[in-house]
Amino acid sequence: MGLLSDLFFTFLSTIKDVLPIALIIFGFQLFVIKKRIPQTKKVIVGFIYVIIGLAFFLVGLEKALFPLGKIMASQLTDPEFISGGIKTATDVIQWQEYIWVYLFAFMIGFSTTIAEPSLIAVAMKAQEVSGGAIGVRGLRIAVGLGVAIGISLGTYRIVSGTPLHYYIIVGYVFVVIQTFFAPKMIVALAYDSGGVTTSTVTVPLVTALGLGLANTIPGRNPMIDGFGLIAFASLFPIITVMAYAQLSEWRAGKK
Amino acid sequence: MNSAFLQFLKSVANSFRDLLPIIIVIAFFQIFIIQSPIPNINDILIGTLLVAIGLALFIRGLEMGLFPIGETMAFSLAKKGSIFWLFAFAFALGFGTTIAEPALIAVAGEAANVAANGGMIENTETAKSGYATGLRITVALSVGLAIVLGVLRILKGWPIHYMIIGGYVAVVLMTMIAPKEIIGIAYDSGGVTTSTITVPLVTALGIGLASSIKGRNPMIDGFGLIAFASLTPMIFVMVYGLII
Fold first, then answer.
1. Which of A148, A169, B10, B37 has the fewest CB atoms inside 10 Å of its own CB, making it the most exposed?
2. What percentage of residues in chain B have a pLDDT greater than 90?
C-alpha cells in the first residue's frame, strides 16, 4: 500500500511542478499566438506521459537508488572504513586513504549522468540537429566522463581542504582556451551540457557524498565544504564535450 | 494496440540499459569493497523497474509533447514578429520554471542556515525564511533574464563564447569580493536551476528559433540557452550575498 500512496503523492507534486509551465505555454498560446496548437491531443497526451513518467522515475529513485547510494556514501566516508578502525593520535589526514571514495565518486558520477533524463533530451536534439554527426551515445559518454572527473576531483578537494574557487577559476581558464581550438559547431552544445548534467539523479547522491565527507573529516565545515561538488559536475563536462568533438574531428581528418 | 505495447516494452528495455551502469557500480562496491549484504532487495528491484518504466514514458512524452510544443511556439512567436512577446515568453519560461524548482527551494533553505550561522542575518525563523525567499526570487529573476539574453543572442547571431567568457570574468571578479560563505552555494545554484522539464522545453525553444530565422544555424545558434541559465544565477547570488 505504501508504494501506491508514494506514487500518488509524487504524481501530485509533479503536477504542481509542471503546472506553472503548462499555464505559461497555454496562456501564451491562447492570448498571444491565438491559434490552435497543431495536434493538440497528441501534445496533451505527451504532457501526461511526461508527468506520469517523472512520478514513476522519482518514486523508483527514492525506493531503490537513493537509500542505497546514501548508505554507501556514508559507509565509504566512515573513518572506521577509511583507516581500518585503527585510531591514530594525529589528526593529519592522508588523502591517499580516500582512494575508494574517489573511485566511487568517479563511477557514480558517470553512471548517474548516463541515466539523467535531461541529458537524454539534449542528446536527442543534438543528434537530430547535427544530422547524426553528434551521436546520442557519444555525447552522453563524453558528458558522463566529465561529471566523473569533476566529482572525483571535487571529493579530493574536500579531503585536502583546498579552496573551491581556485579549481573553478583554473577550470574556466582552461575552457576559455579550449573554446578557441574546438570546432565551432560544438561550442554552444558543450556550454549547455554543463547545465544539464546536474538534475534529478545526480544531485541527491552527490550532495550526500559531499556532506558525508565534510561531516567526517576533522576541520571541514559541512556548510562551506559540503557544497561545491555540483559546480565541479557542471564545469568538467564542458571540457570533455569539446574534447570529444576535437577527437572526432581529428579522427575524421586522419582518414 | 499490440504493436504499441511491444514498442513500449522495447523502450523499457532500452531504459534498463541506461540504468545498467548504476546497477553495476552499486553491486561492485557493495560486494567487493563494503562487503555487506544489500538491504531491502525487494524494494530495490521494484524501484529499479519503476525507474525504467518512468524513463521510457518520459522520453515518449518528450517526443510527443515537450519538443513539438517548444518548437511550434518558437516558430509562431518568430512569425508573429513581436520582439516584446518573444522576450515576455522567454522571461516567463525562465522565471516561472525556476521559482518553484524543488532543488532550488532546498538550496535556498541551506543558504539561509549558512547566513544565519555566519552572522549575516539574525538567527530567527522569519529572518531565515525572508532570506531564502529573497534568494529564490533572485535566482528566478536571473534565469528569466538569462533566457531573454540567450534569445536576443539567437536573434542577433552573436557568437556565444564572448558572452560566456564575459560571464566567467564576472563570476571570478564577484568571487573576490563576495562573502566567503556564499561562494559554494552560489556556484552550486548555477547547477540546480535547470530541471528535467525546463531543459527539453528551453532546448526546443532555442532550436525552433534558430531554425525559423534566416541565416541562423540551429547547431551553432540554437543551443546555449541552458548555458546562460546556469551562469547568471552564480553572479546574481553572489551579488545578493554582498548586498544582504
1. B37
2. 36
